[in-house]
Specification:
2 copies of one chain form a homodimer. With 355 residues, chain A is mostly helical. Chain A has one domain (3-352): Farnesyl Diphosphate Synthase. Helix content of chain A is 76%, strand content 1%. The first copy, chain A, is built from 17 helices and 2 strands. Chain A has a two-stranded antiparallel sheet with strand order 1-2. The radius of gyration of chain A is 21 Å and the shape is globular. Chains A and B meet through helix 2, helix 5, helix 7 and helix 8 of A and helix 2, helix 5, helix 7 and helix 8 of B.
């Protein structure tokens, strides 16, 4: 089964499990504002999203469990809640009012504030406040996925440990990234460490949570870890490339955001390492400016091209791709062929994606 | 043993357990920014704080466990992390740069930002960003208290459920409060529901987590719930009174904050219910103004006094005090006398406190 077919089969089930969580919250609230709050959260969660993390959790479980029972759906949504929680807080941090072409969660409540007769707060502060709490709620709803489901307490307790570890690593990755924005000199090694934490860890833990419920032996869990972290690294490198050189109509993201923010992408780090001193100095001056205009962005892109940064980054991604591929060939000895195909197909997709 | 003696015995142990959590984080970090981040969190946690929640957790455990072993210290800090996590996020929401007379957590990183050569973000945004993540981290560190300690998995799993429930209720209380600020008409009933969630629930869950580890039977857990929620309600009512009529030198808090924010305190709700229509209209106009000056605040206080709001609120607090006292007399049949005294003394203190 290829990844698209797998997604087509399981995404409705994943979305339904998410919907049930929110419906039960909405129905149990007797306060109107709380009802609206959970309705907006439900809508935010169910609008778009590739569901990569629950799909990987389900595939890891099914790959090692010939029963392929549906028990895994319920806990699989845990890391999706964690992922969305971090997006809600990220959008506040990055001041992004839109996500996936739809209003960001905090922005929804900036708009909601207009409905009040009495406006003691500024709409923006109101949005930020509810956004902060919305992220918090989502982190805890992810935890709930392991508190009641069809597995025993011992397996759930282990899943909670993975969940907690995933949060710690993701949060460390985000912190390192925020710090990096203010740092001058950076190595590719620092960058890879950062994205392994920020993006790799949660993908890895999604796989390990699935494997945990299927009681997979440790040696195969270790292989799943390598596959997952590498997949995350490739995903983030390609994301950085698309973030400056993607087709805006295909990606749905403007190609000046990363550059203006001064984000330490793999493109920028490559260019800073590979350009000659004069060009490097020019790039530095452009990037250090907190208020870049469109011409500055175009000039930064030209310098990226001069350094052949996109191709160098793709070569780095290929290195992690080969590692993941090798790991996968070892995993295949033990995995169900249908899920082996899913893992392989996803790896190819992440490497070649244009969106 | 009175509450002060109990606090004197256990606070150093509680603080030591908190310190160990952070020391282990700090020592395991190889990134300088992450090291600084955990150092600031440790310092924030260890600077002040009454430790009411862990003390109640410990007292509930010791009250029903003649062994009085120190095993409870480790998990008792869970709800203290949750409490501080919510304070970190609250200070961002309320734009309070100081807490307990010291810099708020986000404000520490606003200052930290000055150290960077390269300033791609505004200091304030940097502080807010790290503050949001700092709260998130603290929520998860609270969870860790139940993941490794000297109790069995079954008891820890139940503690996690209480922790999760405490978060949900606290967060609902905070949301209702944010919504209330923008609402015109409010009843005392709405207010009591809100503070029972915002302040009562975490105190209640701290007691239940302690009782859970001591394997207390359900009927006594129910009594602890009533005691805890009532204690929280009294605490919050007195907090509201001190927030406008306390001695700033004793409380360490300015007495114009609540009024300027338009916080729906029990004083305001009482005044709105008890004043005649003309005075009520005057109060309404003053409160609706998003930019109140000092004269407006003085006039609001005068109207509170005219409505005798502080005394009415104290009468309401007495109602909950008597309920808690009755519940305590039933609990005493089963509790160790030393902890019974602690519970009684704390109840009296919370009712009579001036700070």
């Amino acid at each position: 089964m290829n990844f698209a077919e797998y997604a087509k089969e399981y995404i409705p089930k994943i979305n339904n499990a998410i919907k049930i969580v929110y419906d039960s919250k909405i129905n149990s609230m007797d306060n109107n504002f709380l009802k609206d709050y959970y309705i907006e959260l439900r809508d935010y969660f169910l609008t778009g999203g590739k569901r990569i993390r629950p799909l990987l959790c389900i595939a890891a479980y099914n790959a090692f469990n010939s029963m392929k029972d549906g028990k895994i759906i319920q806990p699989s949504i845990g890391t999706e809640f964690l992922h969305n929680a971090s997006l809600i807080h990220d959008d506040i941090i990055d001041k992004d009012d839109f996500r996936r072409g739809k209003p960001a969660f905090h922005y929804r409540f900036k708009q909601y504030h207009q409905r009040y007769d009495l406006k003691k707060m500024v709409s923006e502060d109101f949005g930020t406040s509810i956004g902060i709490i919305g992220g918090d709620t989502s982190y805890f709803l992810g935890l709930e996925a392991f508190l009641s489901n069809d597995f025993n307490q011992d397996l759930n307790f282990k899943a909670i440990r993975y969940y907690e570890e995933a949060f710690n690593q993701l949060c460390q990755g985000v912190l390192i990234e925020v710090d990096m924005v203010n740092q001058k000199e950076l190595s590719m090694e620092d960058y890879i460490k950062m994205i392994a934490l920020k993006t790799g860890a949660l993908i890895e833990k999604s796989l390990l949570i699935g494997a945990n419920y299927a009681k997979v032996e440790q040696s195969y869990k270790n292989l799943l870890s390598i596959y997952g972290i590498n997949l995350g690294i490739i995903f983030q490198i390609i994301d950085d490339i698309l973030g400056s050189f993607g087709d805006e109509n295909t990606t749905g993201k403007p190609t000046d955001g990363d550059i203006k923010e001064g984000k330490k992408t793999c493109l920028l780090i490559t260019a800073m390492n590979d350009l000659d001193d004069q060009q490097k100095q020019k790039l530095n001056t452009l990037i250090e400016n907190p208020k870049m205009n469109d011409d500055d962005v175009a000039e930064v892109k030209r310098l990226f091209e001069e350094a052949d940064a996109a191709n160098t980054c793709k070569t780095i991604a290929w290195f992690y791709f080969k590692q993941a591929k090798n790991t996968l060939s070892k995993l295949k000895e033990k995995m169900a062929p249908s899920e082996a195909e899913v893992f392989e197909d996803l790896l190819n997709f992440v490497m070649q994606r244009k969106f």
